[in-house]
Amino acid sequence: MVNMADYIKRVRSPRLTLIIILLFLITIFPIFTTNYYVLSILISANVFAVFAASWDMLAGVTGQFSFGQALFFGVAAYMSGALNLFLGIPPLLTIPLGGAFGVVVGFLVGLPSLRLKGRFFTITSLIFPGILSVLIVEYPDLLGGETGFYGLAPISSEIWITYYGSVILMLLSVFILTRIATSNIGLIFRSIRDDEDAAEATGINTTKYKFLSFAISGFFAGIAGGFQAHLLMFVGPYVFNIFYSLQAMTIAALGGIGTIIGAVGGSYLMSILNELLRDVVSFRVIITAIILLLIFRFLPRGILRTITKQCKVPLGMWRGLKKLRSKEDGYNP
Amino acid sequence: MDTILEVKNLNKRFGGIVAVDNFNLKVGRGEIIGLVGPNGAGKTTFFNLLTGFLKPDSGDVFLKGIKTTKLKPHKIANLGMARTFQIVKPFKGMLAVENVAVACMSDRVRTANKNGDDVISKALESLRRVQIIPPAENMFKLASELSHGYSKRLDIARALALEPEILLLDEPFGGLGLKETPIMQSVIKRLHKDGITVIIIEHKLRELGKLVERLVVMNFGEKIAEGTPREISNNQRVCEAYLGKEGGSLFA
Question: Which of A18, A69, B20, B237 could staple A55 via S-S, CB 3.0–4.6 A?
Answer without folding.
Answer: A69
